[in-house]
Amino acid sequence: MDLGLDRRTFLKRAGQAGGLILAGGTLESILAACGGNVSTTTGSASPTVGATKVASAGLKQPGNLQWGADYVSGAPYVFKDPSNPNNLIGFEVEIAAAMAQLMGGIQQTQVEVCYSNLEQALLGNQVDMVMNGWEKTPDREKTELFSEPYYRYGQQVIVRKNDTRFANVVPKTVADLEGYTVGTGSGYKAETIMLADKKIHVKSYTGNIAFTDLVQGKVDAFFLDLPIAAYYILGSGPGATPIPQLKLLGDPIYIDDYFVGFNKSNPNAAKLLPEINQCFDILKKNGTLKKIYTKWQLMNPLQSQIGVM
């Protein structure tokens, strides 16, 4: 069983057209190519017939929506199809496909970028936008614009089922993790939250987030996004396999949203941002996002708070 999670790579690949596109521009020297040739499937999501066509005037390449994300073990966002590794699947793959259809059936190209380098790729105008469980932070707000939220989530504590230290713990804040060694991903919002509490021993994974470390007792807990925890720990979603030794502790905390990010200094962003927001407004109201989230077992009462019907 693969208990690892790695969302740190860089190369480009075509979306609906398939095929590999090598990294270009000035970022080529600072972002290392990795991964491999992977064709992209666009998923089964589609907008309601007769829906209003959305303009696509803000694209860097007319007729091609290029969005940055990291596919390597990136479930449930975008990742290799376990039944056909030559294709890519994920709930964000399906969202991108639905947006492209609303824009008149244009091409959508997923650009593979190491998660920790996504902002560099965005600010270097290598992509039109970033969509990869992207969170709004004070630092990012200095250089980025953000769409309306498309998914509401929380941070989830994960522990071993047989760890009696957590038997009566219902996490309310990260203070409940004080004194423990807790793993998370480098650059994740969960890392930022925990680093503010000096009593937590944070183990940040810059490469492979190995859940085997928790199974083997090398860390006391993990703390990261609920969609990741649900897929890898509970086995929720297409192709998922649960890890029987681990469990989610309590409900998610620090409720937040995922957004699409745009380069604030790119003139095209002022055009593309309202176009993407119009797509989200339609996809929320016509049931497409609900259909996608239900398929991936991500639908919950939180989504109605951001207008997902």
Overview of this protein structure:
- This protein has 309 residues and is of the alpha/beta class.
- The protein has two domains: 4-148 and 259-306, 3-Layer(aba) Sandwich (D-Maltodextrin-Binding Protein, domain 2); 152-257, D-Maltodextrin-Binding Protein, domain 2 (3-Layer(aba) Sandwich).
- The chain has eight helices and 16 strands.
- It has helices at 91-102, 118-123, 138-141, 189-195, 212-215, 226-234, 269-285, 288-295, and strands spanning 4-6, 12-13, 20-21, 64-69, 79-81, 84-89, 107-112, 129-130, 144-146, 151-160, 181-185, 201-205, 208-210, 221-225, 246-258, 261-263.
- A five-stranded mixed beta sheet has the order 12-11-14-10-15, with helices on both faces. A three-stranded parallel beta sheet has the order 7-4-8.
- A hairpin with a 6-residue loop joins strand 2 and strand 3.
- Helix 1 (91-102) runs antiparallel to helix 8 (288-295).
- The model is unreliable at 4-27, 29-37 and 39-48 (pLDDT under 50).
